[in-house]
Amino acid sequence: MSATVSKADGVTILTLTSDPNSPWPPLCQILKNLCCSPVCCKVSQHLRRLKRPSEIVLGTLQIMIGLLNVVLGSILISQHDESWTMSYTGYPCWMGGLFIVFGIVSILSDKYPSPCLVIINVILNLTGVAFAIAAIVLYSISVSNIYWSEICEECYSGETVIMVSVGKGSSG
């Protein structure tokens, strides 16, 4: 596969031709060439000057949140089997894995600021926001199910509980 770049009048044209003898589909060939070409993956000195320490902090926080999701989610799954959202979907584990990947890409984007990696980092950070909102909703549903199931189990266990208050009365 060959790639050529031509610039004229503020327009950049990237021409990619696929290899018909390659066993890979044309889409995979194009993506490989875009991500591994010197145009996209060259470390940009302009982006290196613009980098801030917030990328490393964000990546570290995402990795820590991912690890907390995996560990604490596994504990919740093992302790409360009646929560259908956790036991059937296993979202704490795979969301934790996604947050770890997002954090690793964020740190790599800070260390090697190529245009391709910076764009991927922005897309993954926006995706991470959506997954974080989904995690908050799913954890809220699971916690409310655990709480209500314990209350309903006490109320509808088949036993009738009668509370009698006996007090000493005064006759006067």
User: What is the mean pLDDT?
Assistant: 75
Through-space gap between termini:
105 Å
What is the helical fraction, as a range of percent?
55-70%
Radius of gyration: 28 Å
Helix-strand topology string: EEHHHHHHH
Strand arrangement across the biggest beta sheet: 1-2
Inertia-based shape:
elongated
| Contiguous helical run count | 7
Detailed description of the structure:
By secondary structure, the chain is mainly α. It has two domains: 1-41, no CATH class; 43-152. 67% of the residues lie in helices and 8% in strands. It has seven helices and two strands. It has helices at residues 26-36, 38-41, 45-50, 54-79, 84-89, 91-111, 115-155, and strands spanning 2-8, 11-17. It has a two-stranded antiparallel ribbon with strand order 1-2. Helix 4 (54-79) runs antiparallel to helix 6 (91-111) and helix 6 packs antiparallel against helix 7.
Main attributes?
mainly alpha, 8% strand, two-stranded antiparallel ribbon, 2 domains, 172 residues
Give me the secondary-structure topology:
Layout: E1 2-8, E2 11-17, H1 26-36, H2 38-41, H3 45-50, H4 54-79, H5 84-89, H6 91-111, H7 115-155
Antiparallel strand pairs: 1-2
Short description:
The chain is 67% helix and 8% strand. With 172 residues, the chain is mainly alpha-helical. It folds into 2 domains: 1-41, no CATH class; 43-152.
